[in-house]
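If it is no trouble, might I ask you for a protein's amino acid sequence along with its backbone structure tokens?
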Amino acid sequence: MPDADPRAGVLSKRALVTASHAVERAALAEGAGDDTVVFALFQRLPYFEREREVYAEIARRAAVTVVGMVDSGRPDLPHGVTPVLLRPDEPMAREWSVAVLSPTFGASVVAQDLDEIDPQATAVEAARLFRGRWGLRRDEAYAEVVRLRDAMGDRLPPAVRRKVGEVLASVETPPALDVESRAEAALRHVATKLDKARSRAEPRPATGPAVDPDTGLDTLAGIQSWLGDATDTVPLGLVFVAVDDPGALERRHGTRIRMHTEQNIADLLRDGLRPLDRAVRLGPGEFLVIQPAVYPHELTDRSRRLEHRLAALHATYPFVDLHPRTTTLLTRRRPLPLHSLRAQLRHVPAVTLWPPSQGSLPIPEVRPVGSRPGAGQWFQ
């Protein structure tokens, strides 16, 4: 959970958005001009797109505006914004930072993505947690500009490095610490009030996102806003579940049996989920459990537990054999790699019930999680 003090420690995405906007507005304040440098790290292009107009205006005023992000090619940025492409495996790729520095003023936000979430949040992006700090302190902004300039190295054009050096050299007078601390206290107070007001104003739909009418589970279309942008940031644990076709079940036993069986499946999928997790119906006999920021062993345990409990439903009314199969995947990809999960599932045998009313055969202890070259052992 985020720390109580919003200036430093574990910070929510909402706190970072508020602090970043304050620092960016400082770069646009009356009197800011061609003696100001601005560095910003956005992780991925979709995050920058939300602030494109702000940075276009900053670039028109500031001496230097540098934006860093991971991208496959040179992004289309506003005139005057210097792009720096980051490698996915370097520390800056997981960083959310903004630093504004002039000879007399400085402000900064510096935070590292923890790959962790607030389990009580209601959407994946809003749940993201970072460790860092923000402040209206020139000495901190000075240090961040130096750090980012050096970390970017020769990815910065010589003219940009030269101008950054000139602004750094122009910082000579001592910082006004009393003014800075008072300004921070005021901003903290306003940010806290805004945060509470925004929480009260956020709509809380009574029925959640779009749902499957037969089970009450989410649909894939209904969770798109919950998933957020295709940014490759938040890790998601996926448990893919396949059972016997309910249509065939209805033809054999009738509509009431099919509906009751589907409700039993939905109840098992929802059992033990955190508020942020989602259980989704993909098709007649396909389901998906999505858990942001979980460990591999937690994902494997949930998969095995679901398979066992679904197989055991034959001993519960309406006494139907489901022959479930499950497979798992940890991924950062959007859209979700459902094709990979289906391909994995083709190699997973269905649980065999023998005899049907007396339980199931043992399920293998471990099933490897899918991966792709360069994605790490657990991720696809």
